[in-house]
Structure formats: C-alpha cells, structure tokens
Model the fold of this input.
Amino acid sequence: MAWKPSSRSRVNARDIRAFGVAAFRVILVGGVFLGLVACRVPGLSGALESSRDDYLEAQTGKELELPSDMDAEIVDPLPIPEIQDHPLAQVFPKDAPRPTALVERDDDQAVRLQRLGERQWMIVGDEPELVWPVVMQFFADSNISVVEENAEEGLVVGEWFDVENQDYPDVLRAVVREMREPLRDFEGGNRLRIRVEQGIRHGSTEIHLRHDRRDAPVASVDFDTASAIPEIEAELLAELGAFYASGYADVSVSLMGSAVAALPKAVVERDVNGYPILRLMIDFDRAWATVGQALERAEVEVLDVDRESATFRARVRDGFIVRQETGFFGRLNPFRRSGSSRDDTAVRIRISAIDGGHVVRCVDEADNPIDVELSERVLATVRAFAT
Done:
C-alpha cells in the first residue's frame, strides 16, 4: 500500500521552503549592503574597490636617489610633461576631459571629384593605407612602372612613356592618345604623378593627379603647377575614380600608405587657452570654400557671409538634441532650420591664417569664444561635412 503524506507534512515542507527563501533574501541583501559599505569605508574596500579613477587623484612621488658611492644616472623612459594651467581648466573640475566630438554622415564611402578654380582632385571614403595599393594597381594595369614612391609626401611617380596615333588596350595610354589626337601632337614623353593625402573629413583620402610632358616649356616639379594638358588630367582623374569605385583592385593594407595617414590635414584640437579650434593645413581659397560647402551640406542656416573678414555667421542651438525624427545625426547636429528659435544662437565661424594653413574658430557677436562643448560640436560638424 502506497504511503501518502499527511496535510501536516505538506504544511511543514511549505514552511521550510518559505523559510529558506526568506533566509536567502536576507543573505543577498546583507551581502549587497556590505559590498556598498566596503566600497565607501576606508580600510574595508579591499578587492571590491575600483581603481579605474585613481589617476585623477594621483600625486607625484619622490624621485629615486642612488647611493653616493654609485656612478650612474637615472633616465626616465616615460617622463611626464609639465602641465600648464589653462583658463578653461575649470570646465572639467571633477571628471576627466571628454573626448573630441565625432560626427558621422551617411555618404562617407562615396567617391567624389572636386574642383576649385583650375584645381581638381578626388576624394574617397577610405583611409590612405587602403588607397595606396589601388593607386599602385592603377599603374600596374597600364603596364607603367613606378619609379618613385615617397610615403612622407604621399607621392607616386610613373615612368615616362610615349604614345602614337593608334589604339591602346590600357586606360592610361588610351586616354593620353585620345586627348592628344585632336591636337595632332604626339611628340614628347608623358608622365603621370599621383599624390595621396589625408582628407579633411576623418577617415577619408584625397588623390591629386598631374600629367607632365617631357618637352613642356616649364618643367613641372610640384603639384602647385597645372598639368601640361589639363584635359588629360581631368580625364585620367575620372578614370581613376571609376577604377576605384569598381572595386576591381584587391583590397589590402599598405605600410607605405600608413605613413601618409600620419600626416593629418584637418584636426579638431584645443588652442593654448583651451578653446576648440579646427586646424586646416590648406590655403585660404580652399579653406573658405571648404567651410562654406560644409555648412551648406550640413543644412546650416547661414545668416551672413563676409569674405573680407573671413567670417560666416550661422544660427545654431545651444543644446545638441533636435527633433527625434531627424535620425541619429539629427540628435547630434547643433544646427537646425526649423522649430522654436528660443534656444537658437547666432555664432560667427571665423577663419584665420597660421603657419602652413588656417584655423577655424567659433566666436560670439563680440568676438569672444562661445561655449566650449557647443564650439567643439560645431567644428566637428564642419569637418565631417567638409570635402
């Protein structure tokens, strides 16, 4: 006959389970409380204390001293530089300085041909170490040997070659022959030079191209001089853009291209007083066009433009959050066109010359620096939409 537990035994079992659950909760809550106390009370922290913020309160220790009978010198392999006091040190009184603002756009992988006056170049949405192998492949596919590679200058120079009035299977000779045929001029050698540079927008690359003639009246030695036949330069640049966009070349990383990546053309940083600036290592004409085009592409409401004083006057809002339906970038973009103007601020974006380039700053109507975080966001947006 099977044994059946009595109602009393079932009640006792239920009480035991309830007691066990209650005891577990008491132990759990007590453990959490003890852990919180240990993190706050000196001497009880032990292994529970996080040390990730200790560097904020770090102090300089005593220098090492050698015994007087030893003839040696202590050299610090990682010396700590002297920290200068900045007027904006109070911006981060308790926390570590925040990283530079980053703004992305949706079309960062596009291949574009840019033109400014008689100058033209190509912009691609990849870093120089990925672009360099494609340029080398462009020469190789045209059976043109590379006679010079200078990563420090981002320069690739092909050998001299001749063309005649005939069809060629490779793009380079075919374009040169096609452009020179209407001129009835096939005399003099041809040479292609390409310079790879960091783009203004983070992660992008600029490609500049020049076509030289051996018998040109003025020898071309740099990229400030126009190509011998500008039409050839324009056509070859378009062909190189199509070659790059087709993805025909093998994707690889070049150490030579990595050296190009170490030469930034634009960077958002702080000046000696701690205010954000956008440093552009380009001439004024291009700096002016770059900032203006970036504001237009970012759909900024530009109130006034004064080229003589190198200033754009734009409307921005004090905060960073705009309408939710504008998407991810909209939640970061400090610029806006519509909505309440209660929080809008008129900001002057000013360009000034420095050695080797220009600096872009954000100031108010009285020519004083504006809020640090807003200024940094504005400059990061200008760089992200620059080409």
User: Anything to note?
Assistant: Residues 319-331, 336-342 have pLDDT under 50 and may be disordered. Residues 112-261 form a domain with the Alpha-D-Glucose-1,6-Bisphosphate; Chain A, domain 4 fold (CATH 3.30.530.50). The chain is about 30% helix and 20% strand. Residues 190 and 213 are 5 Å apart (CA to CA).
